[in-house]
């Protein structure tokens, strides 16, 4: 899809310096700009590239004045970075503006969907499913019985939403995510064999939740596994049964959270963190990558290590740990000296 420089400037409420009729049809970094590309300059470190870029147009802030000749057309705006972000959002909306119901698909007669929806080919939608307005469901998705999906939701290819799952408004679920699979519940019998405990609950995603690719969220044994408003989950995260994650908490890839743990709001959890079950983590907690959490955590704590320590205590301990060979050598020398005396 092609746009003129003037059309881009109109979207961004900017001013064109150069040829307003020049056409762009792709986006590029300023150092990699080529003919037909639109780029931007926001960081002063990249200023030198404005004189060498081959990009057809470059978004700059209004106070930018070139110090020598340039070949790119300029679009001057109040804030180059914010304007480029706005343009990316606009571009994404245009690119993903699909509507209609493709074939072949299966939609149960008892299910319904709202206006301006897109349902991709080979999607299965079970009984009593309710789908809101402006929902996009990409090909090969599975939507189980009694699932509820709000407005402005995007479900990418290959997602699986098991029965009774509830998805709020303005959520995004990326490819191959599985929401609502059985929790890991087994009980030993008198023979020492493990028998399955039925998982009869569901998963609730509140509004503005993002779920990364291949992330899995298990249904509750009883009640609900709840992901609160504004939570952002990275790729390949495991959320076990009956977990609750508080508002606006963000969690990086490959983290695992065991069953019935409650995590507060506005937390930041790094990648590959392991969290045991049946504990409570407070609000505003920061957990560094690869930490292991085996206890309740108070509001505002910052943790690192496995088992995790207070962040400053961990750093102090790590200094000692790195010096253990020298400390051991010193102790050995003192022992020899003491024995000789």
From TrEMBL:
EC annotation from Swiss-Prot or TrEMBL: 2.3.1.191
Record's function text: Catalyzes the N-acylation of UDP-3-O-acylglucosamine using 3-hydroxyacyl-ACP as the acyl donor. Is involved in the biosynthesis of lipid A, a phosphorylated glycolipid that anchors the lipopolysaccharide to the outer membrane of the cell.
UDP-3-O-[3-hydroxymyristoyl] glucosamine N-acyltransferase non-repeat region domain ranges (all copies): 22-89
UniProt cross-references to SUPFAM superfamilies, sorted A to Z: Trimeric LpxA-like enzymes
Cellular component per GO, a single term: membrane
Reactions it catalyzes: a UDP-3-O-[(3R)-3-hydroxyacyl]-alpha-D-glucosamine + a (3R)-hydroxyacyl-[ACP] = a UDP-2-N,3-O-bis[(3R)-3-hydroxyacyl]-alpha-D-glucosamine + holo-[ACP] + H(+)
Subunit structure: Homotrimer.
GO process annotations (BP): lipid A biosynthetic process
One term of GO molecular function: UDP-3-O-[(3R)-3-hydroxyacyl]-glucosamine N-acyltransferase activity
Family membership noted in the UniProt record: Belongs to the transferase hexapeptide repeat family. LpxD subfamily.
Source domain of life: Bacteria
InterPro entries referenced in this protein's UniProt entry, alphabetically: Hexapep (IPR001451), LpxD (IPR007691), Trimer_LpxA-like_sf (IPR011004), UDP_GlcNAc_AcTrfase_non-rep (IPR020573)
Pathway: Bacterial outer membrane biogenesis; LPS lipid A biosynthesis
Keywords from the UniProt entry: Acyltransferase, Lipid A biosynthesis, Lipid biosynthesis, Lipid metabolism, Repeat, Transferase
One Pfam family linked to the record: Hexapep
Protein name: UDP-3-O-acylglucosamine N-acyltransferase
Record Gene3D superfamilies: Hexapeptide repeat proteins (2.160.10.10), MurE/MurF, N-terminal domain (3.40.1390.10)
Active site annotation, chain numbering: 241
Organism of derivation: Pustulibacterium marinum
């Amino acid at each position: 899809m092609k746009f003129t420089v003037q059309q881009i400037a109109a979207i961004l409420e900017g001013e064109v310096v150069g040829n307003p009729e020049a056409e762009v049809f792709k986006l590029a970094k300023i150092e990699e700009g080529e003919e037909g590309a639109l780029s931007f300059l926001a960081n002063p470190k990249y200023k030198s590239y404005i004189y060498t870029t081959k990009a057809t147009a470059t978004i700059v802030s209004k106070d930018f004045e070139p110090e020598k000749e340039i070949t790119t057309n300029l679009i001057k705006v109040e804030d180059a970075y914010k304007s480029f972000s706005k343009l990316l959002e606009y571009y994404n909306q245009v690119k993903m503006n699909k509507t209609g119901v493709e074939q072949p698909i299966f939609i149960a007669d008892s299910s319904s969907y709202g206006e301006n929806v897109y349902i991709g080919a080979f999607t299965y939608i079970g009984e009593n499913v309710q789908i809101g307005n402006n929902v996009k469901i990409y090909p090969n998705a599975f939507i189980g019985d009694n699932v509820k999906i709000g407005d402005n939701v995007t479900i990418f290819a290959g997602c699986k939403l098991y029965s009774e799952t509830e998805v709020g408004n303005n959520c995004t679920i990326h490819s191959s995510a599985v929401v609502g699979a059985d929790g890991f519940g087994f009980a030993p019998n008198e023979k020492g064999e493990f028998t399955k405990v039925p998982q009869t609950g569901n998963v609730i995603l509140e509004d503005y939740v993002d779920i990364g690719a291949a992330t899995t969220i298990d249904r509750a044994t009883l009640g609900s596994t709840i992901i609160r408003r504004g939570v952002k989950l990275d790729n390949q995260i495991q959320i076990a049964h009956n977990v609750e994650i508080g508002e606006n908490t963000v969690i990086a890839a490959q983290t695992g959270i065991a069953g019935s743990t409650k995590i507060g709001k506005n937390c930041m959890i790094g990648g590959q963190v392991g969290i045991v079950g049946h504990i409570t983590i407070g609000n505003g907690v920061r957990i560094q990558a690869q930490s292991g959490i085996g206890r309740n955590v108070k509001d505002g704590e910052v943790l690192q290590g496995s088992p995790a320590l207070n962040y400053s205590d961990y750093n102090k301990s790590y200094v000692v740990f790195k010096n253990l060979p020298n400390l051991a050598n010193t102790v050995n020398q003192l022992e020899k000296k003491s024995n000789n005396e």
